[in-house]
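Q: Hi! Curious about what ATP/GTP-binding protein looks like structurally. Here's the sequence.
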Amino acid sequence: MRDPLSVLTEAFTAFLFGKVETTRLPVRTSTGQAQAVYLPTAAPGLGDSGVIIGREVYSGKGYIYDPFQLYGQQLPAPHWLVLGESGNGKSALEKTYVLRQLRFRDRQVVVLDAQGEDGVGEWNLIAEELGITPIRLDPAAALNDGIRLNPLDPSITTTGQLALLRTIIEVAMGHGLDERSGFALKVAHAYVNQTITDRQPVLTDIVEQLRHPEPESAAAMNVDIDDVRAWGLDVALVLDRLVDGDLRGMFDGPTTVGIDLDAPLIVFDLSHIDRNSIAMPILMAIVGVWLEHTWIRPDRKKRIFLVEEAWHIINSPFVAQLFQRLLKFGRRLGLSFVAVVHHLSDVVDGAAAREAAAILKMASTRTIYAQKADEARATGRVLGLPRWAVEIIPTLTPGIAVWDVNGNVQVVKHLVTEAERPLVYTDRAMTESSSSLPEDVQAAEWEAEQRAALIERQMNESSQSTVA
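A: Let's find out. The predicted structure is below.
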């Protein structure tokens, strides 16, 4: 029974002030607050030092990435693999990443630009904006005092020269050199280096020596000189393609004087080379080895080597072996290798599956844009992605990708500033789809649905692991 005095007090208060009722406000929360409450949904970031990529789709947090900042603690290697179908934003990501990296004074970037339109490479606009002239490798231009890179450049070690010559020949032939052909090449190379001292040796000298070997070379091995000539004939025919064939002019003379290897951005324009021909992997091998011996130096600079159409490297066992050495060597000297590939099946199902696996293993960062469902499943198996990420890949819209940074997996939306947009979107269709994305209601709804689904999934997984 209530106290009569309390009842009288309430009645008097109500008479004077009217009846007072309190209502409980509805509970509202945000994704960020939910992640703070449910810690399993708040995945750790990559730190706050480096290059801004965009924002995480599910948490809304800014996404910052820099292999040089993360190397050693969160990354065992600074190398990066970018995958995805055309038209989903790979090129925009590469270009904005490079532009943002170049804001740091200790960064330097080399790009192998294998794509282009209207006679110039895709990176031509960015090069012009930075006041840089691309190094355009073009067989037609090379005949008229164009750019030349000499595989026998004295800046390359003797061992490096011989390894490069073997790779050129093996790529062109499609198989490894046998012992006799390898011996003929070794003898010719040694003789040319020993006897030509007043100028740079060139490929023509090697071809001439293979066709007309010295008697001393045969005598040293106690074989007939005609045998040595026969052993080197196929090798001479392959190298002759670089001297008098469809690739003549680019590699059969001294290296062009004046190539600026100290510029912040160095662009090799390979767009005049048929990307589906055997010339492309040969070209990439020569450029890669030449850069290894002339560009990478033991200083304090951080270097980025970005290769478009990188399947030409990864899918050739001979070229891949050269680049494996470069990747291992580069980690000690601050080199981050960025390989851009359309389909992982282009490399893992090829003749260089073992070499491809070794290079993929070195790439501790993997960025995957939209792929078809079967391709996404294959990619997930090779890269060891979690199931939820594999399921999301086919539904990704342009500009959004799955990022796997040494096991830290996030869905990230790449953001492009208005100043960057005219430089990075060189394709009209890509520009229109990308520029409409931020205001697109369907994209916003998709993000919200995916965010909610991920939070629910992670909470369920967390509950199950707690119960277990």
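A: A fun detail: The chain has a mean pLDDT of 79.
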